[in-house]
Design a protein that fits this description.
Jelly Rolls; globular; RmlC-like_jellyroll; 2 domains; seven-stranded antiparallel sheet; mainly beta
């Protein structure tokens, strides 16, 4: 199996990633629509939701943390005291454990997701993800020893920093860069908003993703990165501390 698991291609090209219908526990509100591509370290999973136009779910208490990014159709998320979120392709939302909300889809809708167990969130709520983020220089720069060229300028906007599960969620962008094949230090979900990336695999093969595509890379997977233009993405990153891997 490839180290970079492609969850969606905007071009409509077929995927080699296998998906399996499964629920994330007995109280999963999207159980009937969920297809999982990866599940493992840190209680994290990634895949897609196929929602029909009749979907309307009232959720008294959301059971886990989940990032949803719409790639086709339209998703509405309503919470008490806030204007409804209308999510169209290339927009998303983070739902945290305990949130009360209503989710509906007025048309057939395809969503990519990244979910994680998060029993006691330190940052509860419902948080929209937008491409026009409040970018700031990233705190952690890439070490020069892993780069095959100039050091890039990276920026991020962390919408959620969930320290209880070592996870951050938000929007990121970077100038072009080239990185060696190495063990990926985090579980990472990415939805590409701009540009494209070529992920190098240890066997010399390359997985290319472009604007509108979504991909997941597990922590520890050996993979490289090469981009020749600005890349922007929604991201979920989670570091699984040593001894907590499953």
């Amino acid at each position: 199996m490839s180290a970079a698991l492609v969850l969606y291609r905007a071009s409509g090209a077929p995927l080699s990633t296998p998906f399996r219908p499964a629920a994330l526990g007995q109280t999963d509100p999207f159980a009937a629509s969920r297809e999982i591509a990866w599940q493992g370290n840190g209680g994290m999973s990634a895949g897609r939701l196929r929602l029909d136009g009749a979907l309307a779910i009232d959720i008294a208490r959301f059971p886990h943390q989940e990032t949803l990014v719409v790639v086709q159709g339209e998703l509405h998320v309503e919470t008490e005291g806030a204007a409804p979120l209308v999510l169209k392709p290339d927009s998303g939302v983070v739902l945290t454990t305990g949130a009360a909300l209503r989710v509906s889809a007025p048309m057939p809708t395809l969503v990519v997701f990244c979910a994680a167990d998060c029993p006691q969130p330190v940052q509860p709520g419902v948080f929209p993800l937008v491409a026009e983020a409040d970018f700031k220089p990233s705190a952690n720069s890439l070490p020069k020893e892993i780069l095959l060229g100039p050091v890039p300028q990276c920026r991020s906007d962390n919408v959620v920093d969930e320290t209880s599960i070592h996870a951050k969620i938000g929007t990121w962008d970077s100038t072009p860069y080239h990185r060696i094949v190495r063990a990926h230090p985090v579980n990472e979900f990415m939805h590409i908003l701009d540009g494209g990336v070529r992920f190098a695999e240890p066997d010399g093969s390359v997985v290319a993703v472009e604007r509108g595509d979504a991909v997941f890379v597990p922590q520890g997977a050996s993979i490289g990165w090469e981009s020749s233009e600005r890349v922007a993405k929604f991201y979920v990153v989670q570091t699984v501390p040593a001894g907590e891997e499953k």
